[in-house]
């Protein structure tokens, strides 16, 4: 890889006594990516995030955030990264505004700059009107959005979200995911961990599946689906009026097609790349009529189930 | 450094707003005033034989109705205040979910503990200085004998030692309650993956296993 990743992990290992939480994890995440960590509870997602943040030291191996080692230069890393923990808490007897002001002070942001930034961020996460209310009165979804403002206040290059959508209602989830997507548009690299697959699928450009501390799969959702289920092939389902032998053999001749199975008026074609245009032409050129054609899409559910059945 | 000061000011404000502290300090003020009142009533009996340190004797004389002197009360209450200020300094942050958020900000882990300790120290200082001055002023009004320079010096020495005494109990509380929480985690296994690493690294008792 010639381009240096914003986040790099090399052989990261973390053990607690005899228990290995993370085992030889290798990872490279580029700028502006939204990377999703998937895995059941206790797979090592949080531990990995903590090691990347410098909040816990790896037993062996190294992590690098923008070229800094979190174990050796934690302050430099913490200046560049924002972290929204799973069970995020705020000072309940302070207002939303005061809570953000405290974070700004911890980051050494000057007063007036902080106050402008806080107002702007509260507007962004839709909490302007309740900015002067005590956080104790907030709903879980509101606290989560305040958490996102809290992460944004230092203008991070990398943001880690640990289960950002757990325990909030569908509308709240939508808002949180939109905010995260907007952050990604501002060139912030995002790592989020979740076991809610549908959401991850919606916003992540790449996912990594963790199981018992191992990174068992990594790539885009589509790519993972093809590798896991169809052995890296595209599968195209074709329905035609008359599946003649001539048609089948002409489809087989298309470069990249590996197998064609027919059952009734259905043809199941597996090929190395998306050959729908070529197949459509073959059908049109034959006497047959095209009824429908679709490419099989893989959901994370399938991928996830596949990996966890294996492990 | 800015992080340490931010924590210091926040904690100081928290102490003076917390109900626990307000109740405790009210109790101490009341006890202090009572002892000095009783002392002022009984001080005349002893003065005839010995006229040295009359002003200071105000602090140590006790009466029949209340057989405790001011230093005795202070020595009883200061550890309570110290422990009250220190015992959940770190645990409350962890339980409320603030700790991991604070630790991901650009400051050293020590700064969190140091900032809290400093805030507690200043709180104890304010409390001790104010009560001694209050009591001294009251005594001055009641018996009308001004303190000599030596008496003032001794009074300040007493204040200084009292503050150290309070700070000792506070740091002991921070240490022990920290250990209790950590060892609890070792005992139960790790019920929460977030809490576990923090408890190990804040108190750094990795050798414990």
Architecture overview:
The complex is a heterodimer of chains A (311) and B (209). Chain A has eleven helices and 13 strands. Chain A is of the alpha/beta class and 311 residues long. In chain A, the strands form three sheets. A six-stranded mixed sheet of chain A has the order 5-6-7-3-8-9, sandwiched between helices. In chain A, helix 3 (96-106) crosses helix 4 (111-124). The longest helix of chain A has 16 residues, at 170-185. Chain A is elongated, with a radius of gyration of 24 Å. Chain B is mainly alpha-helical. Chain B is 78% helix and 0% strand. Chain B has nine helices and no strands. Chain B has helices spanning 2-17, 19-47, 54-60, 70-86, 91-95, 99-103, 109-143, 149-188, 195-203. In chain B, helix 2 (19-47) packs across helix 3 (54-60), helix 2 (19-47) runs parallel beside helix 7 (109-143) and helix 4 (70-86) packs antiparallel against helix 7 (109-143). The longest helix of chain B is centred in the C-terminal third of the chain and has 40 residues, at 149-188. Chain B is elongated. Chains A and B meet through helix 1, helix 2, strand 5 and helix 3 of A and helix 1, helix 6 and helix 9 of B.
Low-confidence stretches of chain B: 183-209
The count of strands of chain B amounts to 0
Any guess at the CATH architecture of the largest domain in chain A?
3-Layer(aba) Sandwich
**How large a portion of the residues of chain B is in β-strands, by DSSP E?**
under 5%
Distance between the termini of chain A: 29 Å
**Structural class by sheet pairing and helices of chain A:** alpha/beta
The largest β sheet of chain A comes out as:
6 strands, mixed
- Biggest sheet strand order of chain A reads 5-6-7-3-8-9
Number of DSSP helical runs of chain B: 9
- Report the average pLDDT across residues of chain B: 79
**Runs of chain A with pLDDT <50, length 5+?**
none
* Rg of Cα set of chain A: 24 Å
The secondary-structure class of chain B comes to mainly alpha
- Helical percentage of chain B: over 70%
CATH class of the largest domain in chain A: Alpha Beta
């Amino acid at each position: 890889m010639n381009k240096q990743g914003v986040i790099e992990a090399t052989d990261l290992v973390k053990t607690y006594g005899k228990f290995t939480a993370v085992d030889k994890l290798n990872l490279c995440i580029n700028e502006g990516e939204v990377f999703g960590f998937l895995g059941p509870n206790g797979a090592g997602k949080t531990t990995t995030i903590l090691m990347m943040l410098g909040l816990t030291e790896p037993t062996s191996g190294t992590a690098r955030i923008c070229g800094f080692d979190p174990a050796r230069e934690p302050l430099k890393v913490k200046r560049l990264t924002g972290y929204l923990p799973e069970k995020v808490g705020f000072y309940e007897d302070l207002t939303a505004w005061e809570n953000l002001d405290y974070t700004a002070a911890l980051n050494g942001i000057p007063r007036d700059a902080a106050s402008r930034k806080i107002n702007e961020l509260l507007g962004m996460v839709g909490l302007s009107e309740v900015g002067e209310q005590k956080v104790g009165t907030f709903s879980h979804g509101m606290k989560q959005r305040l958490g996102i403002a809290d992460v944004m206040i230092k203008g991070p290059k990398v943001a880690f979200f640990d289960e950002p959508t757990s325990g909030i209602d569908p509308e709240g989830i939508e808002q949180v995911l939109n905010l995260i997507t907007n952050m990604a548009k501002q060139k912030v690299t995002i790592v989020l961990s979740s076991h809610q697959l549908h959401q991850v699928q919606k916003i992540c450009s790449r996912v990594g599946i963790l199981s018992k501390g191992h990174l068992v799969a990594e790539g885009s959702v589509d790519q993972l689906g093809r590798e896991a289920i169809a052995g890296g092939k595209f599968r195209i389902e074709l329905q035609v009026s008359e599946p003649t032998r001539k048609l089948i053999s002409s489809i087989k001749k298309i470069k990249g097609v590996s197998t064609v199975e027919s059952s009734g008026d259905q043809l199941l074609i597996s090929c190395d790349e998306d050959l729908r245009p070529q197949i459509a032409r073959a059908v049109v050129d034959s006497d047959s009529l095209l009824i429908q054609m679709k490419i099989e899409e893989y959901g994370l559910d399938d991928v996830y189930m596949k990996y966890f059945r294996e492990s | 450094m800015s992080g340490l000061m931010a924590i210091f000011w926040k904690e100081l404000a928290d102490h003076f707003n917390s109900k626990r502290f307000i109740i405790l300090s009210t109790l101490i003020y009341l006890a202090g005033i009572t002892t000095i009142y009783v002392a002022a009533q009984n001080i005349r009996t002893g003065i005839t034989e010995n006229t040295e340190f009359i002003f200071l004797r105000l602090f140590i004389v006790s009466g029949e109705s209340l057989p405790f002197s001011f230093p005795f009360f202070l020595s009883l209450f200061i550890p309570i205040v110290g422990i009250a200020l220190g015992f959940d300094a770190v645990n409350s942050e962890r339980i409320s979910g603030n700790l991991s958020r604070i630790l991901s900000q650009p400051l050293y882990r020590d700064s969190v503990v140091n900032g809290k300790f400093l805030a507690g120290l200043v709180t104890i200082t304010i409390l001790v200085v104010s009560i001694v001055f209050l009591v001294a002023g009251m005594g001055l009004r009641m018996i009308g004998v001004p303190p000599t320079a030596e008496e003032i010096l001794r009074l300040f020495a007493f204040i200084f030692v009292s503050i150290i005494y309070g700070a000792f109990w506070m740091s002991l509380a921070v240490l022990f309650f920290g250990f209790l929480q950590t060892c609890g985690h070792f005992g139960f296994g790790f019920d929460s993956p977030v809490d576990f690493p923090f408890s190990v690294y804040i108190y750094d008792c990795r050798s414990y296993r």
